[in-house]
Amino acid sequence: MNGGPSGFHNAPVTKIFVIASSLLTILIGVRGRSSKLGLSYQDIVGKLHIWRLFASVFAFSSTPELMFGLYLLYYFRVFERQIGSNKYSVFILFSVIVSSLFEIVALAFLKDPSLNLLASGPYGLIFSSFVPFYYDIPVSTRFRIFGINFSDKSFVYIAGLQLLLSSWKRSILPGVCGVLAGALYRLNLFGIRKMKFPEFLTSFFSRLSWPTVGGSPPSASSGNVIGSIPSYRGKLCSCRSYYFYYGAI
């Protein structure tokens, strides 16, 4: 299972997010500040450093988390291709803000000493993306391993589970908050699915995105933004739920 053709064709926002996450993780890791990232209860009752809040949205605290996180971000570019970069940018902003608010409320309510520092990285965006992935991405193949049923979606779930459990409670809490943010987006809280940024912002990100290596990518279908997503054995109608989930593009 894949998210369409390889590369970031029709996914400039995802491309910028992946590059920013990679560079910040490496940069902060080299400077030895990875252990200082992530929200904590002390940040809530004390002084919250803005640079930590910003960096913790993008930068992972370890190489394994970075690998699994980038794989999931790269796969979920399928949603940007479906709803367009403008609405996907709104989805990113909503997921990050709402999941961060949930984290702050949870830290203030739990006051758990073992949650002295939450895992850093775009957990909110990644795990909010699992909501549409669960409901709207169809299964294309099923198979059995040692008598256990699997599908092509299982590999994405396994990567997500690995990331969720990477730092135990420190990563589980941000993951759960991300799922809650994705559920609120699906419920169309405040009509969020119809909101858009001014076109000049998305045009800026499109121009900022580096050209695709290897020549011109295949053009998407003019009648369907999902044009580059695989047909899942010819049953294109199985992807209709995308349209009703995100609203008319």
From TrEMBL:
InterPro entries given in the database record: Peptidase_S54_rhomboid_dom, Rhomboid-like_sf
Pfam families: Rhomboid
Segments traversing the membrane: 12-30, 50-76, 88-110, 117-135, 171-189
Boundaries of every Peptidase S54 rhomboid domain copy: 49-188
Compartments, as annotated in UniProt: Membrane
Keywords: Membrane, Transmembrane, Transmembrane helix
Membrane association type: Multi-pass membrane protein
Superkingdom, natural source: Eukaryota
Single GO MF descriptor: serine-type endopeptidase activity
Primary location recorded for the protein, binned into one broad class: membrane
GO cellular component: membrane
Similarity comment: Belongs to the peptidase S54 family.
Protein's UniProt name: Peptidase S54 rhomboid domain-containing protein
Provenance organism: Aquilegia coerulea
